[in-house]
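Need a sequence for this fold. Nothing fancy.
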């Protein structure tokens, strides 16, 4: 079992790029498609705390029921926000990656390079053509 976990949405380019960079380091991570298998409330809270973020920081607004649920209301508690996420996992900002070196919300995708235990094995170019890692395996 891999010591790297990615909370992944295969429909998201940022998530696909992040997964590809993990694989470019020579590791096959544990892939959790969080829309099919959402993390429990406790798991999500643990990830949020490990990232040093607030629950509000991991709420995705675009393409979600964020507005219709009124989640922008600053009076909502973390517990209320977690309840909304439990009912609508699409509200989780992605991808979240957990390694032995830490947990990060990988937006932009190259943030994952900060927590990968192994270096990149070669060049990496994002789906949009942006070069992130050169031929030498170093950040561009």
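Here you go.
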């Amino acid at each position: 079992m891999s010591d790297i976990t990615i909370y992944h949405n295969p429909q998201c380019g940022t998530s696909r790029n992040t997964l590809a960079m993990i694989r470019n380091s020579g590791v096959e991570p544990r892939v959790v498609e969080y829309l099919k298998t959402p993390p429990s409330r406790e798991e999500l809270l643990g990830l949020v705390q490990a990232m040093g973020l607030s629950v509000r920081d991991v709420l995705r607004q675009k393409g979600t029921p964020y507005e219709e649920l009124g989640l922008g209301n600053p009076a909502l508690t973390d517990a209320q926000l977690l309840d909304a996420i439990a009912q609508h996992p699409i509200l989780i900002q992605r991808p979240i990656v957990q390694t032995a070196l830490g947990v990060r919300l990988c937006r932009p995708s190259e943030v994952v390079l900060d927590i990968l235990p192994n270096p990149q094995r070669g060049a990496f170019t994002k789906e949009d053509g942006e070069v992130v890692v050169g031929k030498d395996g170093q950040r561009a």
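For context: Residues 13-24 form the longest helix (12 residues).
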